[in-house]
Amino acid sequence: MIDLRSDTVTQPDEYMRQAMMTASIGDDVYGEDPTTNELEEFASNLLNKKAGLYLPSGTQSNLAALLSHCQRGDEYIVGQDAHTYRFEGGGAAVLGSIQPQPINFESNGTLAIDRIESVIKPLDSHFARSKLVCLENTQAGKVLDLEYIERVRELCNRYNLSLHLDGARFFNACVDLTLQPAVLAEPFDSISICLSKGLGAPVGSILLGNSDLIAEARRWRKVLGGGMRQAGFMAAGGLYALKHNISRLSEDHENASLVHEKLIERFGKNSAACATNMIHLNLDQEIYSTLQSYLLSHEIRVSTQRWVFHLNVSQPQVQKLVEAIHEFKT
Ligand SMILES: *Cc1c(COP(=O)(O)O)cnc(C)c1O
Description:
By secondary structure, the chain is α/β, with parallel strands linked by helices. 45% of the residues lie in helices and 17% in strands. A 7-stranded mixed sheet has the order 2-8-7-6-5-3-4, with helices on both faces. It has a 3-stranded antiparallel sheet with strand order 9-10-12, with helices on one face. The site of pyridoxal-5'-phosphate has 10 residues, from helix 3.
């Protein structure tokens, strides 16, 4: 079965399983799990941040970051369709009394600088206190470049705001831009990266930032119920992923791009857009439903009109998909 529903469906390969099976473990709530400690250190070195924290999910990692940056009555500025606003159950408001200030994403996945600036509140008791800007890279597959990020950083400096990155697919952006992770991470006060998406680990995210922020987030992780004991079994998968599965993300981008080309050939120029490891189709819903069942009969599984490529979609499988698209009759 080819599964394009998401890059979260990946399975650990034999080597990752071996690394997990043989991991040294201890009680991570006591700070005594050697593999989790190694993972946190490895990731913080890779992104050149002072400290790292392993958490069970990206949602919890973003939430711990928001709770660490913001107090009750503070506000974060965020994209209307951002994961940290739209897809995390309103956690910042529910658990932190933190007010979101959503603004629309531009078509390239950025938040327009002047639009961010226009919603920053003056220091006045009428308003929530603007505290944090939250970006996403990649945003629905779209890559934010360093020059843009540096402009947002400059704005944050001017208004004394912190800058958080939801980097669930941060390494897809690094690979696309051919930039070292430390370079693309530099402007941010905190970054959350997912190990369980295209990197192929079964569970977990890492939050990175300076030592004070991560100490605060460590406290919040416990409060949120995310303190795990012998977490090293899982952390070993993450460590393996960071060591072996970053540069191969370019294969996923190439696969997406190839399938995108075939979709355009078959359905026309405006039928689909491609960004890093994702294709966003734009087909009439009726045709799409027919295509979806047709693909399923060829053991190709898709759900929405977003198709996501990952390390469990091989080159021969991509060929099979391309042929199926070519032969599809409406
Ligand atoms: C997947 C994802 C997350 C985190 O999701 P979890 O399922 O909680 O690990 C955060 N942000 C973005 C943009 C994502 O795609």
